[in-house]
Structures are given as structure tokens and as C-alpha cells.
Amino acid sequence: MSAGMGINSRKRSLVDGNRALNLFTDRHELTRVFAAYLHDEPAEKILSFSGDGGNGKSLLLKFLRTKCCKRFGADAWQKLKTKTAAEIADYIESADNDQCDLVPAILQDFGLQPNGDDQPQDPFYGLLMLRRSLSRAATELGYRLRFPLYDFACVWYLKQKNRLTREKLAELFPSEEMDLLIEIVNAVSDTSWGTIGKAVFGIFNKHLGENLLLHWQKRGLKKEDIEEIRGMDAETELMNELPRYLAQDLSAAMSQEKAPPRIVLFFDTHEAFWGGQRQQTGILYFQRDEWLRYFLAELDLKAGIVAVIAGRETPRWAQADNFQIPQKYIDIQLVNHLSSADADVYLQRAEIGDQALRQSAIAYSSVTANQVHPLLLGLSADVILQAQEHLTPEDFPKQEATLNKAKYLMNLLLKYTDREFGYAVHALSACRSFNFEIYRLLAEELHFSTTKPAFDILTEFSFVWDVEKLGENWYRIHDLLRRLNYENSNEITQQAHVVLEKHYRQQGQVAEAIYHANRLDWRRGVDEWEEVFEQALELSRYAQCRSLLEVRSELVINSDFQIGRVSQSEGDYFAQLAKYQEAQTEYLEAVAAYNRELSITPDDTATLNNKGLALESLGNLQTQLAQHTQAIQSYTSAIAAYDQALNLAPNYTQTINNKGLVLKNLGDLQTKLAQHPQAIQSYTSVIAAYDQALNLAPDYINALNNKGVALQSLGNLQTKLAQHPQAIQSYTSAIAAYDQALNLAPDYINALNNKGVALQSLGNLQTKLTQHTQAIQSYTSAITTYDQALNLAPDDTYALNNKGNALQSLGNLQTKLAQHPQAIQSYTSAIATYDQALNLAPDDTYALNNKGSVLKNLGDLQIKLTQHSEAIESYTSAIAAYDQALNLAPNYTYALNNKGFALQSLGNLQTKLAQHSEAIESYTSAIAAYDQALNLAPNYTYALNNKGNALAKLGDLQTKLAQHTQAIQSYTSAIAAYDQALNLAPRYINALNNKGLALQGWGKLLLQLSQKPEAVNHLQAALAVFNSSLAIVSGDESVRNLRDELQEFLDNLT
Q1: Is 452 helix (H, G, I), strand (E, B) or coil?
Q2: Element housing 985 (H / E)
Q3: Relative orientation angle of helices 628-648 and 605-624, to the nearest 10 degrees
Q4: From CA 997, how far away is CA 259, in angstroms rounded?
């Protein structure tokens, strides 16, 4: 007949007993610390291991007791100390007994349930347990520890309580002490009162031996101690002194010649003394473990006694009234979580071979990044092993068995809280952080204790963490408890989220409110986060952006599509603050998230569209960093994503619109790289794309607006190529497109802004063509258009910035026309407009950069008016504005370039004023600013050109100061900078012209040095450069004049 199966189908868990010990992982540093206590000079400290429930403290003590209570020779230890903590731990664990001396060690677990005379927390029976363990541990290793005074005190206590029998003695004491104890019993029973002390000392002498008794007497044992014990009341006095007698006997035993060099006392689960009665305070609180505290305080740790205590909290013995142990005598060591790598080692030791399953278990058991909860990991491993091959990584977190393990862990963490405290913990789990005010709010709304004492008790639990970055008295519930409460939809936690969302909205703390909204409905919270973040970024409200980013890591986002959206917004924030590396990381994360979504739903047009947007933003960033090849690749990939969406939905006008935008940006890059035919092709394709969208939706105002932007960019390129009639036509068509959009939507802010930009660009061209009246009209119309936008949206910083730019351009023209009072008025109005934007958005780096530019231009005008002190002040203010922008965005390459430009202008003025040393310093600082920009963007052609200009000006000054060697070096470096720019953009007119001027300056210096042949070579090289420039822009009169003047100089020279 086959045996029947019991109803208990539970398999042994990996977290039980020796199975857990065999899988022990990490804790190398704690092992090293413990080993030092065994080998170095005895420390007068108690080693305290503290940490949350389930962190593996008990397993650590068991590991140290069974694997690491080993002492090596002095030379071996000194050599071992030079190794890493991991190497030390591995060596100790694997060392054979013949390589070391074993150290006696005992373990007393206060969390064990009482069982007869084994009552680990009891002041009497707990000490007796400890005494028996000490004797047994010593005897097993060939030592014998004697406790004469303590043993007599126990016998006398039992006699006074009428419980002194031979049977009781046999239960309480080791068998090897029975002869001595029986004689003591006989002595106290049969001997007259006055001679008991002498009789007991005689028994000690007989059983301990004369030498050992003499040693004890030297340590302070005397007949009067016997009399003192006999004179005490058993319950009110003797019971309280038993810890001292045991401690003194152990200290004396460890100081004798044949004692072990070390003995280790491990005490586990210290928090069990209080159980669920943590609300006790003062004397009642500290009475719970008073006997243990007294025992430890009386130990002579220098005798080689190593005391180790483990608990959820660090002992508070320094606060006790009786038997206080100051904090300096406690060596606090935190038992934290496992790293992900160590967690993986643990699972491999548990024979879980599937890497994906291991990663799923690690992710589920993680409290935060790279912090894995040991017990939850072990429980997760149980689930995987019991499910065998039927479990997938995706299904693991959803298994009922997994959820049951999580509930078990939650109950373990809250083991010592009563019902009301447990209720409070579930409510406070909704908080990212809390103080007493938040606690009281929740307590009032959810009906648990609102008192400060209750709050103080709660915050002493190990699962309540300090939040130091918020200051004193801010706390946070253990992240694992918070997560498990959320995943199990704890009703109390959900109610708390409702209360807190309402509270934070009333307080105007939008980010915190969004966090709680997300925990109630993840999609609602993510959508609001996106909306508020975009608004804050548009208005340069970076403080609000930072508060939203702070909660972002704790948002629940159950969709790769939504992860993509959020990552893209983060990228936009970092890009705006010139934190380029962080921006690139976020854009790549967004693309990766969209790709994951597309692997599940490959035909989702919204995901394809957003992927295109992320790639476009990445391309814009790479363009700014002069990573031109990568930028072209990103733009090309964006276009491919849009084409894929359009193959699925040909009439999807939003995607057609977005494709037009990326083509326009590609055209802008090609223009920058002097790839003019390709740029014209890109702009033509853009305009065709918008026309396609408008054929499908004639009133699609976004397409009309963006068509205007593309026409405007085409006009900019045509201006650059001196195709002036075509450029005027493009600008005119752009303005017509904006007007068409504004006829449909008169309050369309974007179209008003862009129309103003187009009018300003047209004004710039008209200025170039000396159509000054028309240019002034264009600038005036641009300013009027921006005012229209600002009437609709007075706080629109983009419109304010653009209005400032138009006023600045108008001021530049008025300067050119010698309308100096009007120019000063325009510049002053521009500065006021930028300040208006900065009042709304103090961290608007774009406005700060623009303000720097207008201050620099004002300085240029003041030089013309010989207002030199005012000019210096303007340049200084410009540099300060750039520095302010760079404090916010240290990698803002445009601000670095412009700062260099302002420093260069300041150097020019200082040269004019014969402030030569100051001028050299300004030029040098300008070059340093350009180098800083070029370190970030090595292919930044404008910065290369400007660096060349600063070097050339420095060369001119050095020539004037007869610093000929330095001047030649400056000219050489200038030409190298121009060549670098021209290698990147061979048709870059400004760089060509400036290179010609530098060669001309160098040639004239060589003439001064009577090096005529070399001088002629340099001057002819300059002439060739001017001719190359004219071959690209034949209609540029300024270059023609330079060329003709140089030709005449050469003719006269020869």
C-alpha cells in the first residue's frame, strides 16, 4: 500500500535554515569588519548590525558564526588585510581548520518563542541560556569557562524562591558543573548562616583549583561577594545584579592563561524585546532590555570578548537612565540591500538558469536602482523554482504565488506594529515624504491618532527613513512597503492619495499633486505631467521643470509610448539648458521606447510620428554640437519614420506637417555646411509636403504656418547666395502664408511670431541692398506684429524675445544711417523688452543671450560716438549677461561664442585707447571662450571664424607693439582656425574674407621686417582668397573693394 500524501504541499524555502546559508551572498565589507574584531587589538566597542526586516541580518550572524569565527596567525592576518573585502571574506570562508584557530561563539536570538526554561528575553532564564551556550561553545573547542559567582547567585536565587532542586539544577546548568553546584546546594542547606561564605569559598577552591581561584581573587572575587549576594532580596535586588555577576565571571575567565584569545557573543532580533509595544517611553521602554544592557556594560571587552548585536534599529542605549552605554562604544554597521550583481549571483547559486527570469526576479525585488531586498529575492526564487519551466519572465510578477510572498514580506516588516500604527503606515506609504503636518492631515482625514507622541514613536521604526535632503523631521516609509501597498491596491493607501492630491493642489504644489494623481490613475497623471512640463519649459520656468523631474522617477508609466513622450520632454529640457549629454541620453531613450512599442504594434501611426519627432530633436541637438554626420543620419531616420506612417495613413496631415519640419531642419544644416544645392532641394521638398497637406486640408493652419517657416529659410539661403530677387520673393510668400493662417485664426500666436521673424529677415535683406526706407518699414511692421501677439498673450516670452531682436535690427540700421539718437532708443527698447521677458522667466537663457548681443551692439555705437566709458560699461554688461546664461547652461555654445565676440570688441576699444595690456587680456579671454565652445562642438564653424578674428586682431596689436614673433604666431593660429572652418564649409564667405585679411596683415608685417619676397607671397595668397570669395558671391561689393585695394597695393609695391 502506497503512503498517502499530507495536505501540506509546501516545499522547503530557500530562505529557511541551512539552505539559506548555502546561498549566502555578498556582505564582504561587514565580514571584513567582523574579522578585524577577531584579529586586531581588542576594541572597546559593541558591534551593531542594523537594517530593515528581511535584509539578511540573521543570516549574516549565522554566516559569521558558522563560517568566519576563525583566527589566523599575525603574519597571515597582516597579509590578508591588504586584500579587498571580497578576497578577505572568501579566504576566511574557505579556510580549513588546520589553517586557523576556531573561535568559540554563541548566538542568542531574542525573537525565538519561549520554550520551557529557554526564554531568551527573560532576565533570569535568558542569562542562564547565555551561560549554558558559553560553556558549551568553549567545551566544544577544548576550553572550559567557569562562572563561580554567577552560579552561586543563581543557586541562592532559586533557594530563596523555593525552586532549588537537583532536577531544576540539571535543567538549568551544564552537566560538567553539577558536582560543584550540588556541593554548593548542600552548603547553603546544611551550613549555619555565619559560615556559608567560608564553605562556598572552600568548594570553589576544591573545584576550580588553587591557581584558578587565586586568579579570580586577583580579578576581585572575595568572600564579601558571597555575603553581599546572601544579603540581597531575591526579586528586587539579586535578580537585577545577575547580569553583572555573569559579565564579571566571563571577563575573569577570558583573562586567565588558558582562555581562548577571543570569544564572540552574537545577539539577534534585538527589536523583539518591545514587540508591538513600541509606544512605551522613558523608563518603561528601557526596562525591556535592561538586563542585556547591564550585562554588556559590565563586560571587559579588552579581555577579548566580542559582542555583536543585530536589530532593525540601532540601539538607543545612550538615552537610557540606568546602565547607559554611550554612542561612542557602539560600532554601527548598516546591513543594506544586495546589489543587482550580487542578487544575480544568489539566483545562480539557487540554480535558476534562465537569465531573463533572474532579471525579472531582481527587478521585482528591487527597492530602488541596484538595491535588491534580500528576503523578497529569496521568496521570489522560491516561486520560480516551484513553478519550474512553466513560468515566463513577463508572468512572474503577476503570479498569485509572487503576490502572496509580497504580502508575507509586508507582514514581516510590520510585525512589531499594532493595528493603529499599521493603519498609519499604509496611509503614509502614499507620501513621497512626510513631516508631522502631513501626518496630522492624514490622521485627521483617515481617523488615526493625530498626537505628536504617536508620530514620534512611529518614526523610530526601522522602516521609516529620514529624508535628510529636506531637512530635519522629514521622513519616508520604506520604498518596498510603498511599492507593495501600491501594487496590492491597498485601500488605505489609495484613500491617502486622494487626500494628498487635493491637499497639494490647494497648496499650489503641482508636481506633488501630479504624483498622487498618477498613483490613482497612472495615465491621468502622466498626461498632466506632460502638459504642465511643456508649458513650464515654454515659459522657461525651470524651477517648476525641476520639481516635475523630481517626481518623474516615481511616476508609474505602464506604456512604452508614454515613456517615449516623457523622455522626449526631458530631452527638450536638457537641450534648452545646454546639458547636451543628458539631452542626447533622453532622446535616445525616447527612440528606444518607441521602438519597443513598435515591436508590439508596428503599424501604430502615432508611435511612428512621435519617433520621428524624437529623432528630429536629436538631429537638432547634434546640429548644435556640430555633429553634422550624426545629425544628417538622425534627420534621415526621422523622415523614414514619417514615411512609414504615411504609407499606412497617406492623408495623416500631422505627419506630413512634421515631415516638412524635419526637411526644413535638414535644409538649414545643409545651408550651414554650404551644401547649397542639397539645401534648396530640401526646402523645395518641404514646401511640397506642406502643399500636399494643404490640398488635403486647406484650412490646416499649422501647415500654413510651417510652409511660411520653410519659405523663410529658403529666403535666408538665397540671401546668402546673393540671389536677392528670389530671396525677396520667398520672404513675401512666407508672409502671405502666415497671413493666410491668420485670416483663418487671427489669434494664432505662432503665425504672428513667425510673420514678425519673416518681416525682420526681409528688413535685413533690404538693409543689405541699401533699401533703407523699405527696411525700416519691414522692421516696424515686425514690431507691430509682435505687439499684436503680445496683446493676445502679454507673457509670451518668445514674442518678447523676437520683438527685442527686431528692435535690435532696427537699431543696427539706424546706426548705419547715422540716426544715432533713434538707434540708442531702439537698443534701449530692445533691452527693456528682453528684461520684460526675464522678469517673466529669469532663467531664459535665450533672452539673456539676446540681451548680451544688444548690449554689445550698443557698445559699438557708443564707440562711434566716442562715448568710451559708456561703451566699456555696455560691453561689461553684455559679458555679464552671457555669464548669467552660462551659469544656467554651462555648455550653451552660442552664448560662449557671443561672449567671445563681446570680449573681442572690448579688446578692440582697449587697443584704440592704448590700454594694451587690458586689450591683450580681452583677446586672450575671447579666444578661451571660443575654445570652450569648440571643445563642446569641434565643428562649430562660426566659433572657428570668430576665433580666427580674435587671433588676427591680437596679431595686429602685437605688430603695433613690435612683438613680432608673437604676432606671427597669432596670424598663423588665425589662419589655421579659418582653414579648419573652410574644411568643414568650403564656401563659407566670412571665413574666406577674414582669412584674406589675416594673410594681408601678416604680409604687411613681413614688409616691416624687410622680408619682401615672403610678404609678396602672403599678399598674393590674400588676393587669391578674395577672388575665391567673389567666385561664390560675385555681387558682394565689400569683398570686391577689398580685392581691388589689395591689387592696387601690390601693383605699387612691385
Answers
A1: helix
A2: none
A3: 170
A4: 93
Q: Round to whole Å and give the CA distance between 952 and 110.
A: 82
C-alpha cell at 567: 523622455
- The DSSP output letter for 256 is S
Any bridge partners for residue 265, and if so which? 106, 307
Helices 580-600 and 560-576 pack at an angle, to 10 degrees, of 160
In the chain the first and final C-alpha atoms are separated, in Å, by 125
Query: Are β-strands 105-109 and 101-102 bridged in parallel, bridged antiparallel, or unpaired?
Result: unpaired
CA distance 375 to 353: 20
Helix (H, G, I), strand (E, B) or coil at 845: helix
Per-residue pLDDT, 859: 96
Nearest C-alpha neighbor of 346 from the set 51, 12, 15? 15
What is the tens place of the pLDDT at every residue in 887-932?
988 888 899 999 999 999 999 999 999 999 999 999 999 999 999 9
3-state SS class at 818? coil
**Cell numbers at 370, concatenated:** 541596484
- The upper half-sphere exposure of residue 952, i.e. CA atoms within 13 Å in the direction of its Cβ, equals 25
* CA 231/CA 586 separation, integer angstroms: 78
Name the residue type at position 585: T
What letters, b where the CB count within 10 A reaches 16 and e where it falls short, cover 608-647?
bbbbbbbbbbbbbbbbbbbbbeebbebbebbbebbebbbe
Helices (H), 488-627: 491-507, 510-520, 522-538, 542-552, 560-576, 580-600, 605-624
| CA–CA dist 530, 545 (Å, integer) | 11
Angle between helical axes of 941-960 and 916-936 (0-180°, round to 10): 160
Where do we find the cell 591689387?
Answer: 1047
Yes or no: say if 1001 and 989 are a contact pair by the CB < 8 Å rule.
no
Q: Which 8-state DSSP code applies to residue 72?
A: -
CB atoms within 10 A of CB 867: 16
Query: What is the Cα–Cα distance from 792 to 522, expressed in whole angstroms?
Result: 35
Rg, Å, the chain Cα set: 41
Contact yes or no for 883/876 (Cβ under 8 A): no
Distance of CA 730 to the CA centre of its chain: 48
Whole-angstrom distance, CA of residue 50 vs CA of residue 333: 6
Taking the C-alpha atoms of residue 811 and residue 874, their distance in angstroms, rounded to an integer, is 15
What pTM was estimated for this model as a whole? 0.63
Q: List alpha helices for 99-191, DSSP H.
A: 125-140, 148-160, 166-172, 178-190
pLDDT under 50 in the chain at which residues? 1-24
Q: What single DSSP character describes residue 106?
A: E
In our burial notation (b when 16+ CB lie closer than 10 A, e otherwise), range 424-449 reads bbbbbbbbbbbbbebbbbbbebbebb
Distance CA 775, CA 764 (A): 7
Nine cell digits for residue 601: 504594434
Phi and psi angles of residue 305, each rounded to the nearest 5 degrees, phi first: -90, 125
β-pairing, 305-311 vs 263-268, is parallel
- From the list 688, 692, 679, 589, the residue with the least C-alpha distance to 635 is 679
The C-alpha atoms of residue 281 and residue 400 are separated, in whole angstroms, by 41
Residue 881: the pLDDT is 96
Tell me what pLDDT residue 218 has: 66
H helices within 210-298, ranges in order?
210-218, 223-230, 239-254, 282-287, 290-298
pLDDT per residue as tens digits for the range 988-1028? 889 999 999 999 999 999 999 999 999 999 999 999 999 99
Query: 10 Å Cβ neighbour count for 292?
Result: 26
Please, are residues 378 and 347 in contact by the beta-carbon 8 Å criterion? Answer: no
DSSP character for 118? B
- Residue 360: per-residue pLDDT: 80
C-alpha cell at 597: 512599442
Q: Which three cell numbers stand for residue 458?
A: 512611529
Residue 769's Cβ-count burial label (10 Å; 0-12, 13-18, 19+) is: middle
